[in-house]
């Protein structure tokens, strides 16, 4: 019988990978800051227009803007935390990046605990360096 099974894709943290991750986080943080600045400018205009329609509408607009601001600020803080964590990790650390799927043959007599261990793909600087099945290295 064939079953689909998740495969963990992990990368080995190298100086290059660390700098790429930090640069990407900084780019995302800058983008969020730009969105917050835009939201502030557009929010002032929207509130002024809503005030002309009445206090209740203005309050709704204000609440919506506050919610949008809060979501972006939380995302920015999460990116800062992740960036700090990456900076503190030792080079050579394996970090789970994503999960993909594969098809696995399961037959009577298979050790189910090993099937559950699944597979891993280990990547270093964009190159697959190791494959693991059931916790054991697969020779390729």
What this model shows, in words?
The chain is of the alpha+beta class and 140 residues long. The chain has two domains: 2-12 and 91-138, no CATH class; 15-88. It has helices at residues 15-53, 55-88, 112-117, and strands at 2-12, 94-105, 119-124, 127-133, 136-138. It has a five-stranded mixed β-sheet with strand order 2-1-3-4-5, with no helix packed on it. The radius of gyration is 24 Å and the shape is elongated.
Proportion in β-strands: 25-35%
Unreliable runs, pLDDT <50, ≥5 residues?
Answer: none
Compute the number of strand runs: 5
Strand order of the largest sheet: 2-1-3-4-5
Number of helices: 3
- Helical content stands at 55-70%
What is the gyration radius calculated from CA atoms?
24 Å
Rounded mean pLDDT is: 90
Distance between the termini: 24 Å
Largest sheet: number of strands, sense, barrel closure: 5 strands, mixed
Principal-axis shape equals elongated
* Total of domains: 2
Class from secondary-structure proportions: alpha+beta
Query: What order do the SSEs take from the amino end to the carboxyl end, as H and E?
Result: EHHEHEEE
Briefly summarize what is shown.
With 140 residues, the chain is an alpha+beta fold.
List the helices and strands and how they pair.
Blueprint: E1 2-12, H1 15-53, H2 55-88, E2 94-105, H3 112-117, E3 119-124, E4 127-133, E5 136-138
Parallel strand pairs: 1-3
Antiparallel strand pairs: 1-2, 3-4, 4-5
Helix pairs in contact: 1-2
Protein name: YlqD protein
Keywords: Coiled coil
Pfam family, one: YlqD
